[in-house]
Amino acid sequence: MSTRGRVGSWGRWVKRGLVGVVGFTLLAVAVIGFAHTKHGRSLLALMRGAPGCPVGMDAKLSPEELEQVRGKVLASVRGDERALVRPALGFVLDATTRADVERWAQEKGVRCEPAKRGAALRCLDVPVSALAAVDAGVEKAETRVPSHPVDGLFFGFDGHGRLVSLDASRDHLSAAEAAQLVEEVREDLAAQAGPPALERGVPGAEYLQGGALRQIASEFRFSDYRAQVSATNLGQKVVVREQYQSIPN
After folding, report:
1. What's the whole-number average pLDDT of the chain?
2. Where are the transmembrane segments (predicted)?
């Protein structure tokens, strides 16, 4: 099959998969059981904000193919207005390069490894001090200093090596810490980028720790930017994710 045909086929598959996510893609990312179904794997493999498919299906696509698929997927969640600012943990979407991230990681002693056939970098155990020291010329905004270290930081790049997506995950927090962090990120995004388009769950630790798969989440949709923050109770632990994506024109 040609590259064009393969990407078109994957794009159509993703659109069909998105219809079954009850209009809120954060839930699909969070529900681990769904991720292990036929439909869930294909969806996660192509969501550029996610840190990769758990079974490696996205590894079959080149950086150029991933970029084409990314555009198709994000077109379905594009908002009407541009974001006032596009926060991304101090890095700058569409401007920070792979070389910039590699230099930052080396200077701060952060361990990173290539992923997605070179289209991404996966960094592990990122301390607060490393994120607080990011100096990437944030777009007219003050960078929020993270209050907790990041267990996994996933950088996605386009075919030119520019940062287009950033995913931070933490799975070492208590329900109270997770709920507080989500609220902090939500308030920061609302103040800088604009109001959220979608919200899920009830803010606070009491709701979050009330049962497995309970989730507190907010999603911000703009014409040039998408951000998501969520805390999900997976039974044995709570996972917090921050996702930042540039939406191509």
Report:
1. 80
2. 17-37
